[in-house]
Structures are given as C-alpha cells and as structure tokens.
# Entry
Amino acid sequence: MSDYTLNKLKAPRLLYWGIFLFLGFLIVIGLASSSYMEHEGHYVTGMNNQIVWGLPHIFAVTLIVIASGVLNIASMSSAFNKKLYKPLAPLSALFAIAFLIAGLIILVLDLGRPDRLIVAMTTYNFKSIFAWNIFLYSGFFVILAVYIWSMLDFNVTRFSSLVGKIAFGWRIILTTGTGSIFGFLVAREAYSTAVLAPLFIVMSLLYGTAVFYLLLRVISRLQSINIPDEITKNIRRLMIIFLLANIYFLILYHITNLYISKQIAVESFILLNGGGYTTMFWLGQVGLGLVIPLLYEMTNDEGRSFGLTITSLMVLVGGFFAVAVIIIGGQAFPLNIFPDHIILESSFYDNVIHSYTPSIFEFGLGVGGTSLALIIILILITNLKFIPVKK
Amino acid sequence: MLRLLIISSLIFVCMANLQTISAHDGNPHISPGKSKADSQEACVEPTDVMRKEHYLFLLHQRDETVINGIRTKNHSLANCIDCHVSYDEKGKAIPINAEGQFCQDCHVKTATNITCFSCHAAEPRYPNHEKTISKDELKEISKIAKRIKDE
Amino acid sequence: MNNRRHFLVKSASALTMTFIVPSLLSSNAQAKKPLDQKVTDKKSWGMHIDVDKCVDGCTACVDACNEENGLTGFGRPETDSQWIRKIKIKDKTTEKITTMPMLCQHCENPPCCDVCPTGASFKRVDGIVMVNQHTCIGCRYCMMACPFKARSFVHETLTTQNTNAPRGKGCVESCNLCVNKIDHGSDTTACEDACSKAGHNAITFGDLKDSNSKVRLAIESNSPRRLRDDLNLKQKVFYSNI
# Structure
C-alpha cells in the first residue's frame, strides 16, 4: 500500500442516511434516558447505595479503554515505524477521539449533578485519580488533534512521527490512569492492586485492535474496497499477541489476589461461587473473550477476514463482560468491615452479596453514547479525507 | 393644647405608618406578603445592593460556612429565608420558592434559575418542632401587609 | 440613617438569633466558638462507642439522626440514605454476638477525600469529614473508596430537608457529626443525646484534644480500637469491647 491517496467515504447516499438516522435515533434515546434519570433521580436506575457504579460505567470504561486501544494502529506506524499501517494512521487517531468523547459523555451524563460539569473542570483535588484523568483525557484530545493535523497537512508531516510517539506515551499513561481508578481503591478487595493498570493496558490493546478491524471492515464494505490481505494477516498476529498478553495479566491479577490470603474470599466469589458474576467471568470474559478467539485465531493461518471479524466481535463482547466483572463484581462482594467477625444483621446490606439489575435507561444511555462515537466517525470520514485508496 | 396633642399624635402615627410602608430604604418591599421582612426597615445591606448582589453574599458565605464553620446570620441563606418567608393565615410558612413567593417571583421575572432549594429547605424547618409563627406576630405582619397592599 | 439601619439590622439579627439558636443549643455548651470565628484545629471531634452498652433492637441513635438531619426515606431501602445504621456481628472465634452503630468514621486519612475529583469531600480542620454539597458532582467515587460504606447517594428529589441539614438529589452525603449543632456551640451529637436519653450511654462524643473531655475519659478507661486498623486510616470513631 505504498501508493495511496486519502479520500472521503463514498457510501451510497441512501445507506449513509440510513445509518446516520439510525445512529441519531439511538443518540436521542440515550439523551432521553439520561435526562429522565437526572430528572427523577438515580432511583429509577438499577444502581443504588450498594452498587454505586453500574451499566453506564461499564459502557464508559469500555469505550475509554477502546479509545486508547484503537490508537494502536497509528502508534504502529508512527512510534514503531511500521510502514504497513501508515495509510490507516489518521483513521486510527480519529477513532480514538470519537470513542473518548463517547465514553466521557456517558460518564458525565451519569453524574448525580451533570449540570455541575463546570465545577469538575475548574475545581481540582490533585490527589484524586479522577482529577488526573480529566487532564489526561483533555491532553489526549489535544495531542490527537495535533497528531491528525500533522499527518494530513503535508507542510508539517515531518513532525507526525514525533507527535505519534508522544501520543503513544500519553495513551499508555491514560490507560494506566483508567486502571488506577480501580487499582488505588484500598477499600474494595477486588481492586486494590496495581496489576489493574497493566491489565487495563493490555485490555485496551486487544479491544482497540478488535474495534479497529471491525470498523475497517464496515468502511471497506461501504466503500466497496478490499482490505489488503497483508493487513488482515498482521492484525490477526497482533490479536494473538494481545490475547496472550491479556491471559497472562489476567492470571497474574488473580494469582496476586489468591496469594494475599485475606483476599481469597473475594477471589473465590469471582472464580467459583459468585453465581452470575462467576458465569460472566468464565463464559464471558475468559471463554468468549479470550480462549475461543485465541484457539480460533491460532488455527486461522491464512488469516481469513470473516474469521477475524467473528473473533473481533467475540473479543468485544468478552471485553464488555470483563469490564462488567471488574466494576460490578468488585462492588457486589460485601465490604470487609469486620475481618474477625461475621455480620449477622444490617439495615444497609452489609452482609449480603449485592445484586444488580440494570434498568433500560442505563442501557439506553450506554447505547446512545456508543452511537455517538460511531456517528462522529461517520460524519468526519464522509466530509474529510481519511480513507486510504489506491491511486 | 389638646388639639396640638391630637395633631401631633396623628402626625406621629402617619409617620410611623409611612415608615413601615416605605420599608427598605424608602423602597416599597418588592413582594409584600406576610413576612417578617415586611416589618423591617432595612435588609442586611442596602436594598439596591441586595437586589443586585445577594447571590454574591450567599456564594461567599456558603464556603465560609461549609469549610470554615462560620455561622454568622447576616448573609446566611437560612436567615434570609427566616425573614423573607411568608406565612399563611394559620401561621404556616409558605415555601419561599413557591410560585409568587419572594425568591421565586423575582427569579421568574428575571429568568434566572435558583438552585439553592434543591438542597436547602425553602422554609424555616428545624428538627423536633414545626416552625410556625406566633399568633400575635402573624397579626402584626398581616396588618402591615394589608396596609402595603392598600397603598 | 445609616447608623439606625445598622441598629435595626443588629436587632433583627438578634431577634432571629433568639428564634433559631436556642433550638440548636444544648444546655451543656461550654466555651463555645463565636459564630463569626473560623473553626480551628484546637479541637478534634471524635466519638467512642462502647459496644457492650449498645442494646440489640434499640435504634434510638438512628431515629435521632434521621430526625435531626431530616432523613426521610421513600420506602426504598436500597436507595434511601442512611447516615448511621445498626449492625449485629458475631466473632468468628469467640462467637460473641455484639450490636453497634456504624457511621462515618471520620478518618484522619480519609480515602473519600483522596479520591474526590473536585475536593467536595473534605476534612474540616477540626477533623470532621464531610461533603461540600456545593461542589459535589455526584460521581460516587467516594462511595467506592470508603471501606465502611458510610456514604449514601441521594437518589431522588427531596422537599422536606431541615434548615440545619441541607441535602439534595445527585449529591453524596454522610454523617457530619451534627456539624451545625457543633458550630452553634453544642458538644453533643443527636445520636449521643438519644443514646443517653435511652439510658444506654454507649455513645460518647467530644473533643479528643481536651484531656478532660468525656470522650477522652471514655477512651482512656476502656481500651478501644478502630475498625480495619490495618488500613491505617486513623479514624476518630473508636469502638470498645467488640
């Protein structure tokens, strides 16, 4: 793909508007859900004083993790000088911006007081990882914008490699920040380990690559072009590496917790007797998200694109479960307020495994937010030249 | 002598009336109801200042109160409400953000949103006892309110 | 004119002071802080709970807290706020069953304040950990961070708040050791009053820096511990005889 030019998306008009309106409809649903939640208060959601973060946070964290992950393709080109991905780098940076916006919008719309966003932007507690993340996210936007500019404007392309390297460094820190939101919580036994930060990084690499491949497939369909075999094969290789890395860090994370004897209870909750959470872990996160894709791709020697598409979808679904197990599973297990005692009674559910049934509004918000990412991508690639086409 | 006394006492009564009617630095009370404020001659700051800048006082005081524990009354929202809240015939306070009431009335006219009362009580309300106003006080307040209305 | 206005203002304030303050003051107020002075670190409020004196089935402290702070629920126990709650526990080895109130432990190193992005969770200089609800954005990160589940999120619109305890939808809240009472010179909390009124005297509140305060005496005559002291949060709520 040495001889290429960037072009706008030229999808059939009807198809374009069909997708546009469908996504727009989902966004309206998302906005309506969130305004209903804000107006009524969070009691209409499945979240409560026990499970304080729910489905919106699963969506948001997944999207933010994906956002830093999709930049992977650009990093390959700029930071690791892999020529193959150079044509796709601007697209990859664009995806990153879109998914980051979507994730953050969901987070903000789920706040108890979204009207006070300005407070969050102006009043900082610098000890808070959330506050660092606000800087990491806004910094990421700026770097990505400069990065895209440096790749698209031929006057400044000589800087693109440098900006690409900065973006790569920044995304690693950003995902570390996302992982640390959970990793620094001493109160929750499922969380308080620094392994969560690298785990989030490998998760982002995996999910980001999967999302990138899926979107690339969709775009190539719309544009009626083929993805070069070389790229499919390369992405397959990447997927296998990232799947292995994920499995490694996941095992490391659980071994760490199992080794700390006071955390065996929460581990056996996730791994053995947590009911729905255990199922989500083994079937969703491990089976669907890691093992089956890995086994399949190991045998997919020719790098068949259909197989890779299915794998990517499975990885994404598994990833969603992985984040759910971390966020909901971690909260569902009751706090260990009295290590030497059994709690017999409490009016505040201190002695029970909390259950969580998300409401339709939380789902609406999550889906609406995800659609926002897609519509941003759709609008930008139809109006700006992002798609590499052979000359 | 008697005539003089009568006249002077009449003048005195009129002046007394005048004084209450032109409450708040010579301005009639903007939304006469049945509140303690109606019987006061002045607010905690000059009326013009209060009209334009009351939110600044409240904004300043809120941080002083929450963070530093300063509980002075002059610029405290609780005290504003205590004085400006209107009472119905039974001596029960009407929420100050209800339609036509002191805070709401003006904020509707100026199309500004009050966010105070999503958290703060809109009427004096304390634990263990219902805050009502005494009969005598109410009578006094209603008299003033009526007089202002008649003017 | 100006002078007279000031006089009137003062008398008006005095009038309201006589209206409001007596209801907040308790009779045993001592060396109260003037209302216009900032709180200082000369005091450090703390609490001692003698678990042996706490009676199973008694909810006097909880009721008093709800009354003082206007915590009226909506009959939805999963989302209704609880600033203080009763817990019954059994020792894993001795099998001793005890019951006790759980509330915000007012840590010296509060995890809630560390994680709060806007600094709305803060520790006042006199040691009270509270939420500045003017800057709370309702992210609930503090609830994730608290090891004692001390905090509640207001899940629905409130209309019957007390003047002394502002609280509203979309913010996180928790026990603030009756900060309004304390600032008006009281040295008891609603729960302590209720516990002694019920004749149990399990809760003792006071200034930890005052060597003669009742809370110090209670701590010195017992050998209390802090919950989860492995976390080294240095809470100011102590429990004896767990």
Remarks:
- Chain B touches chain C at residues 25, 36, 40-44, 62-64, 66-74, 78-79, 81-83, 118-121, 124-129 (CB under 8 Å).
